[in-house]
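A favour between colleagues. Tell me how you read the following sequence-structure pair.

===
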Amino acid sequence: MKIRHWKVIAVGLMLYDAVAIAFSYFFGLWLRFDFKFTTIDTEYLQAYIKFLPVYIVASIIFFWFTRMYRGIWRFAGFNELLRYAASSLVASVAHAVLITLICHRMPFSYYIVGGVIQLILVVGIRFSYRFYTQVIVRKTPAQEENPAKKVMIIGGGAAGRTIVRELQQSDKTNLTPSCIIDDNPNKWNRYVEGVPVVGGRDDIPAFVERLHIEEIYFCIPTATPQEKKEILDICKETGCTLKSLPGIYQLTNDEVLVSRLRSVAVEDLLGRDPIKVDMEGIFQYIKGKTILVTGGGGSIGSELCRQIAGHEPEHLIIFDIYENTTYSIELELREKYPDLKLDVLIGSVRDSRRINKVFDTYHPDIVFHAAAHKHVPLMEHSPNEAIKNNVIGTYKTAYAALTHGTQRFVLISTDKAVNPTNIMGASKRLCEMVIQSMDAVSKSGRWDLLPFVHAHKDKVIDGQVAGDPVDHRAAGWENADPSEKVELADLYAAGEKAQERAKEYGKLKVESVKNKERTGTQFVAVRFGNVLGSNGSVIPRFKEQIEAGGPVTVTHPQIIRYFMTIKEAVSLVLQAGTYAWGGEIFVLDMGEPVKIDTLARNLIKLSGYKPDEDIPIVYTGLRPGKKLYEEKLMAEEGIKKTDNELIFIGKPIPFEVEEFFQQLEELANASYENSPDIVSMVEKIVPTFHPVGEKPNGEAD
């Protein structure tokens, strides 16, 4: 049989303990008689010799059960010291009691000196190995040739102390904690695990230079975002590599480890409190529901799927046209949530037959509509595609939700829909208008106003256009494709059923919600700014340019944007669903906007380079459709508070629904024909849309 190394060590320790125990109490007796063996009282010596074998065996057995032979000595710490000392103390007390009762009462110094020497020898041998590995081995010639990197720790609390200890114990990181920074003056000129606390945040640059610091670890999980930003703003000017513990949960979950430190990201420098959401409300909203996420393979859609999957839905359906990212999120969710009822479907929101089939099969209770073309410059050159995918795709999905009794429909919108200057932003504003109109139809029952929008308008049956419901019915449509017959029949039946109800209503106009009665499908939109790290966002592009050695391209030195993390954006979307009464546009208070130029410079500094010296910054000019700033609300929109202090509701701008639907049908026909006049048509429908002229193409903005 193969014998484990630790068992060999354990046997050696047992033999050592036997010798150490025998010597300890003999030394106590010998000391009592002035180190003269011949003067030791015979009764004392006989009692010692008689009791010693029993005590040694009993002590070794006791030490075994207190795990004194199974420790990893190179990592032995304060807890092990206490346990070993307590075990030795208990053994010494037992020795004093039993030898007195069984054999003979010994001199008082015998009990005290023997117990102390036993403690020193038994515990000392175990910690001598750690001393050897930490002090002697670390000073080998090889390490002197390749000296360890010096690390500055920000934070002298529990997290900082733990990181210091781990760095000191590890012989693989080749890192040495050289100093600690803490804003508490009471800690200055004192030591944490032998490392000096040298001063506060203002002293960071001086000690980085004085001690030749190469890496800085931010270890204050309890710091507010603003405090963290202020300290990291100082650190990034030093040129050191920066790493940080993500948050307070690291302390509560005992996860304060060097391996948990991550590189400081640019979002750490935004200095904004993370959005707080009512997780219990979201849980009750999601639990037990069948939920459809369109665009579920995208950056926002996939994060929606992750958070929804963690709230116990009855059934989650992911729908996307791009198979690669959709497959990735499917694998991730199946691995993390093996009991989740999950269906992943490939298809386009522009395909009404496919969308209606999905709703016929699954009957979702809630729909999160994230499918959209979002890249501004690309859409400027393909405006018809922006209308087809964003506007008509939203209409078809919302239509299916309305006709299949979906409870709530949440549109993912953008702050680019506010006073848009590009076709992508205008298309998202049209999506918001679609949602507001569909909500008005849902509340009023005016289904007769809904246009019949299809991409296959060119199909003719018996001389009639298949896409026209009235002419199609009058034409004897028994020759139509069977699947189309079923689809159209369902639509006609729904329209006829609504005709009688519609007579009691006059012209329908989108207005603010006046009552709190939830009826039919509630349609809402959620509007937020740029998402850090999402597909097509500026941060990944900047990182690629920095890794390539530059230049980093920025469109304009004064361009500003609002930013939030993907998780924050998705939390807002989920929260908005719980607040929905129908027709609202939810807006997040994203704090102060950020200059893209500042963002680029910070990212260069966090990468260990100097802007304009190591990595040049080039200004390329605003791209087509871009503007210097984004707005969260239109000027004519007021805002209304919600229970969440960071979430507001924009007051809908009134417009005639019947007229809008007529314009929408014309817009759909024009987009399917790839009309060159599509932008001017959108201008007429969206009065706040003012497209900018063509500008030179640039890179990331």
Residues 247-256, 456-507, 512-518, 694-701 have pLDDT under 50 and may be disordered. Residues 108-136 form the longest helix (29 residues).
